[in-house]
User: Which sequence fits this backbone?
């Protein structure tokens, strides 16, 4: 479990620098340049992700069950995951109303994905993984929205067509992941 915790600390810690230490981050980017910063950030993130994957796999070998989720909870996980994928897609489709309303749809999408997975997973390693991502996403979303408000950030209006594109891309990605990739990559087939 310690490897999983270390991975979460490295991955989520690196993803929190812009929130918790924005001035420090800006000084480092100014000192070394944006490209080297992004390379270092990516390397640290990949190390954290590798530790999360490795630690989660090790913890699955000796599961500690905290609760048994009802069978219907997998539908909650599926619904929240699809909506999460749509929100993540909306972060990359330019000028969506989804971004205009939420400001940070990717962070909201991660929160929904994590919440859905918490509903269906009652093992300690899953609670640590998805609970950490949920707590990080909520704290990050709230902090970013407060910062937007303080800086009077206004996101430009979008179009229904671009919202529709985000919905189609996100839903398609969710379906491909659920039906074709989740089993081979995660070891669990959500739909049998």
Assistant:
């Amino acid at each position: 479990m310690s490897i999983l915790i270390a991975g979460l600390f490295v991955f989520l810690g690196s993803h929190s620098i812009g929130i918790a230490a924005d001035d420090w981050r800006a000084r480092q980017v100014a000192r070394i340049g944006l490209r080297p910063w992004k390379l270092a950030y990516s390397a640290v993130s990949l190390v954290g992700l590798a530790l999360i994957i490795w630690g989660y796999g090790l913890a699955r070998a000796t599961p500690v069950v905290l609760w048994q989720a009802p069978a219907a909870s997998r539908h909650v996980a599926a619904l929240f995951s699809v909506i999460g994928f749509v929100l993540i897609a909306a972060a990359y489709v330019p000028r969506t109303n989804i971004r205009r309303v939420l400001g940070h749809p990717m962070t909201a999408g991660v929160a929904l994905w994590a919440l859905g997975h918490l509903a269906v997973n009652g093992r300690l390693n899953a609670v640590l993984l998805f609970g950490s991502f949920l707590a990080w996403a909520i704290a990050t979303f709230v902090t970013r929205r407060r910062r937007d408000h303080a800086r009077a950030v206004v996101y430009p209006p979008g179009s229904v067509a671009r919202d529709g594109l985000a919905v189609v891309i996100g839903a398609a990605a969710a379906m491909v992941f659920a039906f074709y990739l989740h089993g081979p990559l995660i070891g669990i087939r959500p739909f049998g």
About this structure: Residues 34-61 form the longest helix (28 residues).
